[in-house]
Structure formats: structure tokens, C-alpha cells
Amino acid sequence: MSDAVLVIGGGIAGIQASLDLADMGKHVYLVEKSPSIGGRMAQLDKTFPTNDCSICILAPKMADCYDHSNTTILTYSEVKEITGSAGDFTVTVLKKARYVDAKKCTGCGECTEKCPAKAPDLFNMGLGTRKAAYLYFLQAVPRVALIDQEYCIRMTKGLTKDGKPRCGVCKDVCQAGAIDFDQQDEEITLNVGAIIIATGFDPYDPTSLTEYGYRRYKNVVTAMEYERLICASGPTGGHLKRLSADDRDPKTIAFIQCVGSRDLHHNKYCASVCCMHSTKEAILANEHDPEIHSYIFYIDIRASGKGFQDYVARAKKEYNVTYIRSRVAEIAQDAGENPVIWYEDTNSRQVKSMTVDLVVLATCMVPRTDAVGLAAITHTALDEYKFFQTSPLAPVDTTIPGIFACGYCQGPMDIPESVAQASAAAARAAEIVS
Ligand SMILES: Cc1cc2nc3c(=O)[nH]c(=O)nc-3n(C[C@H](O)[C@H](O)[C@H](O)COP(=O)(O)OP(=O)(O)OC[C@H]3O[C@@H](n4cnc5c(N)ncnc54)[C@H](O)[C@@H]3O)c2cc1C
């Protein structure tokens, strides 16, 4: 028997569950796949309906979670195997090599500054590049650099004719002596009494929905890309501009709802947060530049949370946002690289078109691609969309006793709901390990 708990996934749901359990005096092992905890919330600019700065409210929780005496945070790590049952699970975790000694790294950024190799910046949704020696993002927790072996010159290019490494700049400039090219992946065995899955979502890739022109037209972006574009720590330093070569500031923006969701050919379900995040993004556009007019093309507006309907009313009244009840059929492009939206106005039942400076696609959110693998490892069932299966009267219980699921990995939900579920999962896990 063990009184420790394993939390898989360090987004807002996993962080909250870990904090609750740690405060109850339970030891928590938090396993996070990426190099930092924070999840999708760390990528958002602001949060609806309060427009709080997302990282400003998340960062203190990340730090509390990392610094808590009852938590062990394993980042850049994945669960490989689980055996046993409620009260007594044995878990094998693979901790991947960072090629940086976490105990020595001060997060000063010197290695990143001097590293000559560039790689796509996945935290910024591939908009722009980062270095091969990098910090996952500015407020990363832990604040420890890592080296991307796929792009590192030393690791990919081999030795020179006289047997010397082709690069080693990061090692030369690191005053803490933290760079360690000999570091190996490590396997760690944990014994826990309960498990909480909190692996969240991935944005749905709209490339296959060719009618929207994504990737064909530079000025058609996804909502996740837009969040990074308006964020002060994003690739443009928060300067909202078009991605076409003219670099122009947009004055008209169209937000298209239900891209790949509520769609029989893609994902049948409603992703639940898009009406509100598009409203937020339109409000923020107008806060950046009061001359911006936004148009939200929607099927119906789902504003059922606390304060949500008022938020929509304020967007219309105070922030130049027009809601158009419609079905978008196609997005074309004119000679000036301006997106042209062809749509049916479902109020007047007329086919119309509108030319705008920028289009933002509110794409569906889908379970992480490795949800199937994790379900196999944990022996838990998934529902028809591959979200972890739960039941109405036990909303955080999976199909396996002692294993719980919270946040977006078990169904579409916003941040407050994910936090509430995380606390529920923590309470259920605590019952088992107490
Ligand atoms: C464009 C956009 C804007 C949004 N704006 C808002 C908003 O303003 N307000 C709001 O309330 N909600 C908003 N949301 C929704 C919000 O992002 C989610 O509700 C929230 O992120 C869910 O948190 P989570 O912890 O469940 O999942 P995530 O944030 O996805 O975190 C999951 C974590 O698990 C990790 N992970 C995944 N798989 C594994 C694995 N196998 N092993 C270990 N770790 C793993 C991931 O790396 C990640 O760190 C928005 C969503 C989008 C797409």
C-alpha cells in the first residue's frame, strides 16, 4: 500500500489536483511530458470572462506546485507502464535526457543566446523559431534549459576530420557547468495508491478542411496561433499584425466558429469554449487598437457560464464586435492577400461575402494523440471521441478503481471547470490513499 498519488499531465487541472493533495499532506508525483508544467493555459494571452492575464494567474500556482514539500515534479517525462490496483500501483516513468544538469542550471539563458542552431518554436505554435539550446518558455517551471537533440549541431553533425565536436558553444559559455552531453534517459519506478489523469487537449489541425484556406492563405490563422500573436511574450512581442509580407496591422478581423466541431465529417461534439474565447479574442483586438472591428460568424452562441452572457453583451456594446448568425461555406483571397469570406446569412437566408484583413479559426479541441496509448497503459476506457470515459454520478472516476480523470482529457471544458474537477479528483484520490 502507498499513500502517494501520481498525477499525469501538468496543465491547470494537473497542477490544481497536485496542490490540493499536497496541501492535504499526501505526496504527489506529477509527470509532465513537456519540459515545463503549465499546459495550454500558459499559451493563452488572457482568460475570459475577466480578461485576467493568463500566465500572471497561472505562474504563482506553477511555482507553488513545484516548491511544495509534498510534490516531486518530473518534467520531460512519460509514464511507460502501470501494474497493480487501487492502493498499490507500480509505475514506470521514463525521464528523458535534457543534456543539462537541472541541479546546476540557473536558467540564465546564456546557452540559448549563444546557440547557433535554430528550431521551430512549438510553444509559439510554430510561429517563429527558437534555439536548439532553449528554455521552453519565459516563465517555464522548472526554469531549466534543455538541448533539442534533433537540431543541436553537435548531436546531429558528428565529429570533424580531426575528431573534434563541431559545436560546443553552449558548454563553453555555461558558467554553471550545467551542460552535460553524456546525460542519458532514466527509468524511475514509483509506488502510488491512486492515479489522476489530466492530459488535456490538442487543437484540431484544420488543414484538411480545405474550404477555410488554412496554410494556403497567410492571413488565415487558428485561435491558438492568434493567442500567441497578441501575447506580449509571443513571437511579435504582442504586436497584432498580419502574417503576409505586407506586415500590416489588421483593422477588420473575422472569427469563424465551429471549425471541425459540431461537424459530422470531423468531430461531432461542441468544443464548449470557442464562443467565449472568440469573444475574448475580439475584445482584446479592440483593446490593442480601438479602430479594429471584429465579426464573429456563429451557428449559435453558447454563453452559459457565470458572467458569460454579460461578456458577449459588452463585446457588442463596447468593443466593436458584430455577431453574424451564419454558415461559412468558403474562404477565398483577393489580390491584396485579404481573406474573402463567403457565407450564408442564416437570418436573411442570403448568400453574402465579406472581405477582411485577418481570419481566426476557432478550431475544435481534441484529446491528445497519445490518449489511446495512455488508456492502454492504465487499462481505462475511452469514449467514442477518445476522451477518458466517466459517468454522470461519478464525474471524475474512470472505469478502473483508483484511477481518476479531470480537465479537458475527459471532455470539453474551460479553466474554471477544469479546476473544479481537479479538486474533485484530488478528493477522490485522497479517499483511497488515506
Ligand atoms: C484558443 C483557446 C483559448 C482558450 N481560452 C480560454 C479562456 O480564456 N478561458 C478558459 O477558461 N478556457 C480557455 N480555453 C480552454 C483551456 O485552454 C482549457 O480549459 C484548459 O487548458 C484545460 O486544462 P487541462 O489541464 O485539462 O489541459 P492542458 O492545458 O491541455 O494541459 C494538459 C497537460 O498534460 C500534458 N500531457 C499531455 N499528455 C501527457 C502524457 N501522456 N504524459 C504526461 N503529460 C502529458 C500536456 O503537456 C499539458 O501540460 C481556451 C482554449 C483554446 C484552444
Report on this structure.
This protein has 434 residues and is an alpha/beta fold. It folds into three domains: 4-95 and 185-200 and 368-433, FAD/NAD(P)-binding domain (3-Layer(bba) Sandwich); 110-173, no CATH class; 205-364, FAD/NAD(P)-binding domain (3-Layer(bba) Sandwich). 23% of the residues lie in helices and 26% in strands. The protein has helices spanning 12-23, 54-67, 110-114, 153-157, 169-173, 223-229, 274-288, 308-318, 371-378, 415-433, and strands at 4-8, 27-31, 46-47, 52-53, 71-74, 77-85, 88-95, 118-120, 129-131, 133-134, 146-147, 186-192, 194-197, 201-203, 220-222, 252-259, 293-298, 321-333, 339-345, 350-355, 358-363, 365-367, 403-405. A seven-stranded mixed sheet has the order 15-21-16-17-18-19-20. A five-stranded parallel sheet has the order 5-2-1-13-23. Residues 8-14, 31-34, 39-41, 44, 47-48, 78, 198-201, 203, 223-224, 227, 273, 277, 280, 365, 368, 370, 374, 407-409, 413-416, 418 line the site of flavin-adenine dinucleotide.
